């Protein structure tokens, strides 16, 4: 593509995206296609001759869009938000345009240094301990996902515990890790990938608010030690996936400090709330942690992928992940004066992901971000009040931020029917979970364009659907 054509089609593409965002609320939120439908609409083989850009764009409209679930719709309330914003999209576009590969400091110094600085800014905003700064013993890095962040934390813990032997010799099967029954499944997956074994993850019971029971954690650690095992790692979640439960960081931290465990906090979605000072208290006990992660790609207006991960002692992480073949040797690395982020992650290559985060932070400013986050929390509180006031429905877990877990007081079957009816209609997209063995509806608020009118509409559709299903005798 010539530079001139790129300029022309690039403008068209930006217009297309702007139009899409303007009318995204009009599409059925959950894609209505059947499995295989999109694939069947595409040719069996790649085109032999190049095609016009217009033809490609036409197929985006006709063939791709029907198979898109509209995560940016203000009617999207499923799973967790994956909100984006103009500055984030443009920052990502710039990253693609520059096309740099930031595996080493020397392969593009700005790619490393912007990332280091932006993560230091965020560590300040979140009130993380000084040790997490690049200027002290730690530092931050952008991972693709929270799953990668937890895997890296686990690998560093495993290596630290073994005196740097496990990378070379493998694990003996005696190292155990701890989380709650509500912890995200990425930790269980990481246990397998790290060679520690999924069976060596202890899922500790939770209290009535679905938060990890620290007393039970201490008991389990004692039992494991008595059985000759080596407790090495514990994870607390700030905002669990199912219900947004808040594990007691200080209580877990004290146990980890006394027992010498690596302590990781996974704040994937809800960490974003902590950039508002009124939520800093949620970090009580954060001084006990060894690593921390949260995903701007969930609720901080930064499009996927962007998961911020900090360690208090970067040497522990680098010891676990560094490998330096001849072809990557360079003066800057040898000088020890730079960060080579390839040593802070599983893959070698990395994009200039910090650009979109830098754009977002600069465009909104801290106050702008706080404004939008508080607005989402306020909308969630409003919805929780409506649910509480409706005798047909009940709230089944505390709703501290932007997620409400609730159910119709009828059967699980009825709740499932409500969910299916709403999602099939394309008017709304919600998901579910199970809490105390009950089928529970989850409604998450966090899309960049969700306003009060959308939440009012969502609640009206939910109550109308429930009423209709009941009078219909279904
Ligand atoms: N941790 C928590 C608490 C989550 O809610 C999620 C996603 O829902 C994850 C981790 C995994 O996120 P990612 O897709 O970034 O790996």
How is the topology of this model organized?
Blueprint: H1 3-23, H2 37-40, H3 53-64, H4 86-98, H5 109-126, E1 139-143, H6 146-161, H7 166-169, E2 175-180, H8 186-193, E3 201-204, H9 214-226, E4 230-237, H10 249-259, E5 262-266, E6 291-294, H11 296-299, E7 307-311, H12 314-321, H13 331-335, H14 354-389, E8 393-395, E9 403-408, H15 412-425, E10 431-435, E11 438-444, H16 452-471
Parallel strand pairs: 2-3, 2-4, 4-5, 5-6
Antiparallel strand pairs: 1-7, 6-7, 8-9, 9-11, 10-11
The structure holds pyridoxal-5'-phosphate.
Residues 80, 145-147, 184, 186, 237, 240-241, 266, 268-269, 295, 307 line the site of pyridoxal-5'-phosphate.
The residue ranges in which pLDDT falls below 50 over 5 or more consecutive positions are none
Number of helices: 16
- Overall helicity: 40-55%
Looking at the overall shape, the CATH architecture of the largest domain is 3-Layer(aba) Sandwich
Instruction: Give the full name of the CATH homologous superfamily of the largest domain.
Output: Type I PLP-dependent aspartate aminotransferase-like (Major domain)
Q: What number is the mean pLDDT?
A: 96
What general outline do the C-alpha atoms trace?
Answer: globular
Intertermini distance: 57 Å
């Amino acid at each position: 593509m010539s530079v001139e054509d790129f300029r022309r089609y690039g403008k068209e593409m930006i217009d297309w995206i702007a139009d899409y965002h303007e009318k995204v609320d009009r599409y059925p939120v959950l894609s209505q296609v059947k499995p295989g439908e999109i694939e069947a609409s595409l040719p069996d083989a790649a085109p032999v001759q190049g095609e016009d850009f217009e033809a490609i764009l036409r197929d985006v409209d006709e063939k791709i869009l029907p198979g898109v679930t509209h995560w940016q719709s203000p009617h999207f309330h499923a799973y967790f938000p994956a909100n984006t914003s103009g500055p984030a999209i443009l920052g990502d576009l710039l990253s693609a345009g520059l096309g740099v590969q930031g595996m080493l400091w020397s392969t593009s110094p700005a790619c490393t240094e912007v990332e280091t600085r932006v993560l230091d800014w965020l560590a300040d905003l979140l009130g993380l301990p000084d040790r997490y700064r690049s200027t002290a013993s730690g530092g931050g890095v952008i991972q693709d996902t929270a799953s990668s962040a937890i895997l890296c934390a686990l690998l560093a813990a495993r290596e630290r515990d073994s005196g740097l032997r496990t990378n070379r010799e493998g694990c003996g099967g005696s190292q155990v890790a701890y989380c709650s029954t509500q912890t995200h499944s990425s930790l269980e997956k990481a246990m397998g990938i790290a060679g520690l074994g999924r069976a060596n993850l202890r899922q500790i019971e939770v209290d009535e608010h679905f938060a990890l029971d620290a007393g039970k954690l201490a008991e389990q650690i004692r039992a494991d030690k008595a059985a000759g095992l080596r407790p090495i790692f514990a994870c607390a979640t700030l905002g669990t996936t199912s219900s947004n439960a808040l594990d007691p960081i200080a209580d877990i931290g004290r146990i980890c400090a006394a027992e010498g465990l690596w302590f990781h906090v996974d704040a994937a979605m809800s960490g974003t709330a902590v950039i508002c000072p009124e939520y800093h208290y949620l970090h009580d006990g954060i001084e006990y942690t060894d690593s921390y992660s949260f995903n701007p790609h969930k609720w901080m207006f930064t499009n996927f992928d962007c998961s911020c991960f900090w360690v208090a002692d970067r040497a522990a992480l680098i010891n676990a992940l560094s490998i330096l073949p001849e072809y990557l040797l360079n003066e800057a690395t040898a000088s020890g004066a730079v960060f080579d982020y390839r040593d802070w992650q599983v893959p070698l290559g990395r994009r200039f992901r910090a650009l979109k985060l830098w754009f977002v932070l600069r465009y909104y400013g801290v106050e702008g971000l706080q404004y939008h986050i508080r607005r989402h929390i306020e909308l969630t509180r409003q919805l929780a009040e409506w649910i509480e006031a409706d005798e047909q429905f009940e709230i089944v877990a505390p709703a501290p931020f932007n997620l409400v877990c609730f159910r119709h007081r009828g059967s699980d079957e009825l709740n499932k029917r409500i969910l299916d009816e709403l999602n099939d209609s394309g008017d709304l997209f919600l998901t579910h979970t199970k809490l105390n063995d009950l089928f529970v509806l989850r409604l998450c608020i966090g899309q960049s364009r969700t306003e009060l009118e959308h939440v009012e509409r969502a609640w009206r559709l939910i109550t109308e659907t429930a009423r209709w299903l009941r009078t219909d005798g279904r």
